[in-house]
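Progress report, Aim 2. The chain analyzed during this reporting quarter is listed below.
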Amino acid sequence: MIRKEVVKVVDEKDPSHDTDQESLGFFGRIGLFYRQVVSELRKVVWPTRNQLTTYTAVVLVFVGFIIAVVSVLDIVLTKIVFWVFG
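Predicted structure tokens for the chain:
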């Protein structure tokens, strides 16, 4: 006869794995939250200084371009409105 065993797999990402949240008090839950935040921040791949400078420059150029387009449209529409309504 073949005997099969059931193995319980514990998900390490499950927050209830470390501690039972219902059994924690108010301050215990706050502490658990901050520990989880720090744990997630350790997984972040932070950009290098060169990447950060490049990304910032791209965003500033794009925002400047959009400001210019909206300004030109505003001036054109203002001229049209004053021409139509005097």
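The helical segments are 15-18, 26-42, 49-85. The chain has one domain: 23-85. These observations will guide the mutagenesis work planned for the next reporting period.
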